[in-house]
Give the backbone structure.
Amino acid sequence: MTLWGLLRGSAGTPEAYRDVAAGGTGRMFGYLALLIAIATVVVTLQVQMAAVVAMKIGGPWLKKHVPEIHITKGIASSPVQQPYVFEERGFGFVVDTMGATHDLDPKYKQGALLTKTELVFRKSEVETRRYSLAKSPDMVVNETTIDAMIKTVKQWLWVIVGIGVFIGLWVVKLVQVFLWSLVGLLIKNIAPRPLTYRAVLNLAIYALTVPLVFDLVKGFLGLRIPGLWLLSLGIYAGYLTWGILVQGPRAQTSDVSHQTSEQS
């Protein structure tokens, strides 16, 4: 079968799983690359679209509530009357480069304070971090630079996200495949089925198809149900087990032929 033929047969075609078990491992790693590429495109498009919407809303908000700020040689300054305070629903943003404010008011559950020499960021009521401006590059924050930042993000975010997702998926899925191939060896011995480790590894890769599609659909729909990842894992385990159990004489003959060719 071609890679696209395998993709179509992954949902429950026994012949496809037998073909995978009898085929080469190199082809299946190519198939895994195809799956990861498809998932990367889908996730990147979702992130890019969400970012565009967020920037359409966030751009005007930033320009309205963030005053002009200059940082030169690690020293912050602003022409706005200080202390400048913006607060909304437990969030506080304060600019005071004159030295009168040294910490965020406890009433703010989250927020940020810019002083002359540091940025104080409160992530939660129990976590506050301080960042020195000493190593910060010189910059100006105003409407022009905010527009330039938004334009840059729109142009390059998809590249950064795409590369990160592709590499991340490769690492995660390789670990998953190699760990579950060991589980597959136990299943094929208990069943039993005449499969080599190569065949089980191929099936461990192929069984990723349906749960990966499930995860993409879940992400597209924005489902945040606790424990839903267990369902995805269960789907994967089910397809791997089923893929091993549907193996018959064809898989056995193919493995014997493969072993014979290796010995010769």
About this structure: Confidence is low (pLDDT under 50) at residues 250-264. The chain has two domains: 3-51+152-263, 69-140. Strands lie at 69-72, 75-77, 84-88, 91-95, 110-114, 118-124, 127-132, 139-141.
